[in-house]
Predict the 3D structure of the following.
Amino acid sequence: MSNVAEQVKKIVVEHLGVEADKVTESASFIDDLGADSLDTVELVMAFEEAFGVEIPDDAAETIQTVGDAVSFIESKAN
Amino acid sequence: MRRVVVTGIGMVSPLGCGAEISWERILKGESGARKVEKFETDDLQTKIACQIPFGDGTDGTFNPNDWMEPKEQRKVDEFIVFAIAAADQALADANWKPESTEDQNRTGVLIGSGIGGFQGIADTAILLNEKGPRRVSPFFIPGRLINLASGYVSIRHGLKGPNHSVVTACSTGAHAIGDAARLVAYGDADVMVAGGTESPICRLGIAGFNACRALSTGYNDEPEKASRPYDKDRDGFVMGEGSGIVVLEEYEHAVARGAKIYAEVVGYGLSGDAYHITSPSPDGDGGYRCMEAALKRAGLTMADVDYVNAHGTSTPLGDEIELGAVARLAGDAAKNLTMSSTKSSVGHLLGAAGAVEAIFSVLAIRDGIAPPTLNLDNPSVETEIDLVPHKAKKMEINVALSNSFGFGGTNASLVFKKVEA
């Protein structure tokens, strides 16, 4: 697992209070990890803070799964 | 109108997590005041407060994780956590778990707070200034709004009746219970979860009340001596925090399900001083009319009242004004009257004060004992009324009146009466 993926997983576990083994690449924040719409806004903010990237609102809407978040952040970093 | 009784009580106070343990410690003469250590106080005039004893949940300590998941706690200010804990206790005590649609629709919530999420607003204002608007959490607003205490409690227990809140400074808790009792009396609900909650102990809170010259400043080295209502050396109130919640229920509804009944809410009165934003009117007219209105509603007079739980905050002005109003209303009956201020033990819980004091009033009725006014060494005025200095007093209490007066000149009085089994 990439460094970004590990960090994303850690943030998700911390913010949503879920078991680490549930935070798989395909896990949906809302459908699988119990987040509501406000939780997802806060998650995106936490990613921005941790990785020093800006995630515009239209991009944030496309980030539905753990894998989506990792891909987006890695694309910004590259 | 329908009769309304108290069938459940819950509390998080500076003397402990739970109404019974707080009450036991009050009767023993314990004080919840101590030095503030959770933030810097060097530059504050007041360095003490009556603080919730956080801990692992044993020996009366308050463990927030027992009541709300840590990840949920992050989203809200402590006033909401305190209210959730006190409401859980009150509903369990009342043994009321509405599961049918009808029962859920007929159970409401009315919890108020004087200020709401003080700490979170202060912290977020700094964050906004330092890091900009994109760092403001989506939970900032729903975690600070005063009515979200009612919101969280309703969601947690599926209570779909009236969902309401009160904001009347230090009268909030009493107004919440009085207004909720009216909703039950009028038939808008059969059961109401009602009370107040407050978490004001932060730098901004102390700085703000210091600026109003409202807090005690002369007892930083002897915190337990600072709250001394009616004593000649009092110099302001001691800030407290926590929550008091009661379950109010229509009398027949309570009897039909065999609920334990603490007391009946027989009177509720309200008034405005129309005098000054922070000072009570010197003639005590607002408090007098408020008590008079509550007694009229109850069909009683001051001569029928055995015990008054005073507003008695330990401020130089307020205590004597209230005492004067009570004495005038009691007239010749003043010599038979007992009145004490439990703020001498738990401090001033602001928006929660009226609610915790309502609970102490019904427990005084239940146990036949008037709680003490601590630190009352030398009363500043002479009075025929027994102010219960230092030690609790065993006595028959059939009727108790509880006063709450707030900034803005807002007054509330509640009258509770023993229900014969």
